[in-house]
Design the sequence.
């Protein structure tokens, strides 16, 4: 018998074996472009972070209290795989009231572990190996990977600052092939702040109908639109209800990132597929978080409005600030990000972000982390206090004085 005492050399996997044992679709996903910055930030003091896309607010007290009540009442078991019935019913009422969208809480609404899980379920339910999915470029860093991890191919369609990062229907039409199965859209948009009008979305929806495409619509920022803009639910456009998977959540609107709860609305056949994966992979979303989310839907409105009002103040400060400093920035109409161009100051976006962090301790995310068309921009999140944004702008001003193409 070979002995296994310490000191014996057990065979270790070779480099080739270590590569082979990771599934190719996982290998196909590049490591997060944002991670490196967060590692640097973690090792520094005095950093003003405009990097992380997360509300600085703590979850409003009544929502936390509902969770405490749930714990006191012993709500510590799994819920139904579908999610808490009361929560599904409350979301259905809200969607109808807000967007005129009717979802049956019994067969079309699923409570998920955040929109993150909803994205994964949607992608895995509809994508076959080799299917192409159109994804705007730049877009949320998890969108294209969700497609690739499901075995599909993400087909980026570039958008540009001059158009306010709107998706050009002609560019979408040119990207459609016989293999195109779906589009994965996310409006209001991370990282650009684009919040297209109903009129702007209509031709994109028409293309989906014409080519019989599904649409995965990540509407997590639906409640965060500003300056008179209003959110259009894609599923509410003609012909879209039966081909759209709508994803929504509480992380951003109700400052509930850590609770891990969201929802997905889909036609019954797609819902059934998503439920199948969810019940085996997740079982149910966290129970206490679902009770908290129920309170968020029932009574969270005034808190959402108050946070939105504060984001709006910060948005104007940041957007005007960047333009004043010579970093051209399209008006962000939704979510809580500004996406200024840094191309004119002589740094590429990665170097800009790295040097700004090292020289002035301000963290922003390089735009290329969100796709090739994001290059030359940086993402700055304004879910940070007004005072910190003011201070960050002062530091950026100082930083720009020493940039290679300082004006
Ligand atoms: N979708 C978008 C567009 C996001 O920006 C984020 C978080 O940054 C998520 C989804 C993740 O949402 P959740 O916390 O509900 O998983």
Sequence:
């Amino acid at each position: 018998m070979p002995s296994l005492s310490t000191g014996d050399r057990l065979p270790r996997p070779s480099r080739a074996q270590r590569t082979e044992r990771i599934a190719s679709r996982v290998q196909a996903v590049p490591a997060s472009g944002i991670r490196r910055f967060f590692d640097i930030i973690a090792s520094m003091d005095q950093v003003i972070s405009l990097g992380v896309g997360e509300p600085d607010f703590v979850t409003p007290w009544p929502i936390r209290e509902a969770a405490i009540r749930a714990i006191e009442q012993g709500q510590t078991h799994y819920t139904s795989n579908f999610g808490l019935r009361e929560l599904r019913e409350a979301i259905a009422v809200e969607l109808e009231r807000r967007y005129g969208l009717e979802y049956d809480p019994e067969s079309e609404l699923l409570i998920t572990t955040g929109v993150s899980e909803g994205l994964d379920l949607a992608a895995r339910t509809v994508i076959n190996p080799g299917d192409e999915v159109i994804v705007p470029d730049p877009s949320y860093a998890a969108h294209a990977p969700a497609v690739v991890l499901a075995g599909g191919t993400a087909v980026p369609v570039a958008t540009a600052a001059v158009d306010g990062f709107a998706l050009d229907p002609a560019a979408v039409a040119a990207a459609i092939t016989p293999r195109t199965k779906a589009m994965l859209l996310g409006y209001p948009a991370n990282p650009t702040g684009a919040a297209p009008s109903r009129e702007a979305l209509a031709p994109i929806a028409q293309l989906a109908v014409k080519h019989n495409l599904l649409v995965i619509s990540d509407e997590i920022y639906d409640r965060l639109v500003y300056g008179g803009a209003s959110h259009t639910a894609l599923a509410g456009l003609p012909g879209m209800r039966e081909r759209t998977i709508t994803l929504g959540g509480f992380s951003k609107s109700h400052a509930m990132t850590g609770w891990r709860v969201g929802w997905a609305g889909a036609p019954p056949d797609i819902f059934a597929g998503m439920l199948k994966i969810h019940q085996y992979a997740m079982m149910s979303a966290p129970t206490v978080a679902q009770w908290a989310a129920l309170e968020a839907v029932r009574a969270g409105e005034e808190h959402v409005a108050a946070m939105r009002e504060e984001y709006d103040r910060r948005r104007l400060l940041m957007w005007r600030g960047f333009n004043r400093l010579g970093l051209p920035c399209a008006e962000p109409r939704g979510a809580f990000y500004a996406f200024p161009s840094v191309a004119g100051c002589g740094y590429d976006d990665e170097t800009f972000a790295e040097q700004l962090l090292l020289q002035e301790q301000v963290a922003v995310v390089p735009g290329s982390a969100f796709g090739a068309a994001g290059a030359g921009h940086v993402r700055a999140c304004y879910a940070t206090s007004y005072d910190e944004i003011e201070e960050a702008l002062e530091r950026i001003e100082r930083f720009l004085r020493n940039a290679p193409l300082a004006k």
About this structure: The longest strand covers residues 132-137. The chain has 14 helices and twelve strands.
